[in-house]
Q: What sequence folds into this?
């Protein structure tokens, strides 16, 4: 470790809250630029997708269990299950599969 | 008096948020543990940041011993949506809301708290947002700490299973809009594919890019491409409605 974990945390706190405060204090009118609005719209989904796969297959002891949990989660969410049930389902699937794998 | 009523209402509406936070933060704690954060670091980090994807991203950077600049970049990118939310929220304030209240309310913004604040009838009373913040934030921080502690106590098999909880949440956030909007679906599918390609790319290995840096670069690239190919019409409003529905 050459970097301090505390400095990481402080930078995270400052940056995250900076983003939250800036628009509320400075921007008093709506963003009109179509590209920027569109870009901001896609960002959360793209980030989460990039961070989910293939990381989910590396988080579990068995990569296959992680992959199956991913697909099950996608199907469950597609069928309308909300955050918490989808999350629990993914955990259960990994737990059960790893009993056998 | 009016402020006290708003505060109480916020505290009440914040209860289900607080329960959900505890569960998600618990699995975030597992990740934080893997990235060698101490329980107190997890508590402080979560209490003042309150951003699941953002914290997760930064903690992976801690593990990789990445540069400080990439922490700032990661926080900016993973939390860009807060920029949009705060912008939308700025329209909810009455003109004479003080700067101090604006700053304080800004700090309270999370997906869920934004969702209920934007749904507040008429101008937003900041005390409503404070109420939801006050009840949910301690649970978020406590959940993280408990996750970090439990991560070293629970059997490996259970830790492995619980590690996917956070990803389960991510999936549940990205799938419903993908179902409704084909452009989002394609963007999400491309993200999966390109993320996988980047992970196994020799070039990425040669350049010694951390997975955090890859996340930032891919996010900017894919989102910009999607915005160019398929710009959207009136997003902030769509986002608000989705958040509101999730709340109910």
A:
């Amino acid at each position: 470790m050459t970097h301090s974990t505390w400095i990481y945390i402080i930078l995270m706190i400052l940056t995250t809250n900076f983003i939250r405060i800036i628009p509320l204090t400075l921007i008093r009118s709506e963003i009109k630029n179509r590209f920027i609005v569109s870009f901001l719209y896609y960002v959360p989904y793209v980030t989460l997708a990039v961070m989910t796969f293939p990381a989910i297959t590396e988080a579990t002891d068995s990569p296959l269990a992680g992959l199956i949990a991913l697909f099950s989660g996608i199907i469950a969410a597609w069928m309308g299950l909300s955050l918490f049930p989808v999350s629990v389902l993914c955990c259960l699937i990994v737990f059960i599969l790893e009993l056998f794998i | 008096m009016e402020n006290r009523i708003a505060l109480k209402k916020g505290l009440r509406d914040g209860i289900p948020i607080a329960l959900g936070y505890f569960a998600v933060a618990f699995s975030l704690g597992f990740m934080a543990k893997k990235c060698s954060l101490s329980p107190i670091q997890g508590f402080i980090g979560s209490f003042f940041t309150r951003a699941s994807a953002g914290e997760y991203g930064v903690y992976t950077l801690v593990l990789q011993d990445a540069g400080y600049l990439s922490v700032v970049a990661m926080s900016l990118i993973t939390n860009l949506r807060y920029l949009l939310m705060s912008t939308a929220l700025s329209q909810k304030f009455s003109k004479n809301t003080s700067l101090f209240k604006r700053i304080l309310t800004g700090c309270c913004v999370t997906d869920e708290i934004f969702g209920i604040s934007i749904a507040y009838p008429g101008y937003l009373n900041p005390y409503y947002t404070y109420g939801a913040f006050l009840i949910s934030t301690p649970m978020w921080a406590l959940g993280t700490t408990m996750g970090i502690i439990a991560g070293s106590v629970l059997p490996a098999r259970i830790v492995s299973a619980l590690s996917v909880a956070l990803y389960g949440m991510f999936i549940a956030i990205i799938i419903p809009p993908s179902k409704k909007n084909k452009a989002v679906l394609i963007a999400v599918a491309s993200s999966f594919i390109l993320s996988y390609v980047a992970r196994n790319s020799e070039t990425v290995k040669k350049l010694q890019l951390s997975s955090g840096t890859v996340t930032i670069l891919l996010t900017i690239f894919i989102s910009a491409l999607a915005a160019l190919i398929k710009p959207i019409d009136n997003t902030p409003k769509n986002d608000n409605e989705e958040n509101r529905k999730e709340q109910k």
Residues 2-34 of chain B form the longest helix (33 residues). Chain B touches chain A through 104 residues (CB under 8 Å). The CA atoms of residues 54 and 76 of chain B lie 8 Å apart.
